[in-house]
Amino acid sequence: MGGDHGPAVIVEGAADAVREFGASVILVGNRDAIERELARLNAGNLGLEIRHASQVVEMAESPSQALRRKRDSSLRIAAELVRDGHASAFISAGNTGAAMAIAMFVIGVLRGIDRPAIATVLPSLKRATVLLDVGANVAPKPWHLFQFALMGHAYARDILGVDNPRVGLLSVGEEEGKGNELTRETYEQLKESSLNFVGNVEGRDIYNGACDVVVTDGFTGNVALKISESLAEMLGAMIKEELTRDLRSKIGAALSTPAITRFRKRVDYTEFGGAPLLGIDGEAIICHGRSPAKAIKNAVRVAGEWAKKGLNEHIRAALEAEVARGGREGGRE
Predict the structure, then answer these.
(1) Integer Cα distance of 118 and 299 in angstroms
(2) Are 320 and 35 in contact (CB under 8 A)?
(3) Which of 162, 167, 175 has its CA nearest to residue 146?
(4) What pLDDT, on the 0 to 100 scale, is given for residue 322?
(5) pLDDT beneath 70, residues of the chain
(6) 57 and 75 in contact (C-beta within 8 Å)?
(7) Any residues with CB less than 8 A from the CB of 290 and at least 6 apart, and which?
(8) Whole-prediction pTM
(9) What gap in Å lies between CA 127 and CA 134, rounded to an integer?
(10) Which residues of 175-206 are buried (b: 16+ CB within 10 A; e: fewer)?
(11) Strand, coil or helix: what is 285?
């Protein structure tokens, strides 16, 4: 209910996921608004379940207010459905901070994980790169980044199908010892782990395929993500402008249509659905507020794969294995 486009694209994306993937989806929000969208889409016969919620968390609302004052919000009820076992995954295109806070306090955190992390999947020259954290933790400790690396490794392997993912630590230089105190201490922990740690990486390595998982703090990760989004929008606008500048450019664009289509698919964030909130004792995917129906559809697909492949169980097992090897055991803060 709280996304930029309201329930329209959410219902459409959910209906598409049912048709294309055979997904089972519960739509949580204002019943009348949802039923209007289902009627508009001729999707009333798809078996989409509706759970009414009388409140909506607005995009500018603080997470603490959403937790305390809106106990009948669509976000809260959706999280409770996961907590109580009526649903496997929680998907939202609404207020990111509120979605994260409600997921943490209603669904709970995986045993052994101190802080959940928001991950994002970005295109690269080879396949894709998982970048985390991109906003949940602006001042983490080294063992938090170590846990992020474990979770990102498991996600890249289970969801993206990468065999033994390469994990890099984002820093200001590739050499060991570069960076601030946080990266230097994290480097030592990752070097002693069983992960396929390739060392420090720089910002350029997010996109050149040098590694499959890039770990950083939420402040740096969020800045990197927002710069990337802005750059992608600028390049798209510039390419469109040049391809339509004159008749010769338009003819060239027409001849290049297949290549342009393939390029768009490679860089299309909607193919990955949304940003997984890793470390929650369930599945939680946070979509961009501007997400179109295609992104919602693919978020449902990824959530289904997450549940079926037992990603959370693999994260728990990886953490326990590292603790047994002598790594630091996380504790509640």
Answers:
(1) 14
(2) no
(3) 167
(4) 87
(5) 262-269, 327-333
(6) yes
(7) 3, 4, 5
(8) 0.87
(9) 20
(10) eeebbeebbbbbbebbeebebbbbbbbbeebb
(11) strand
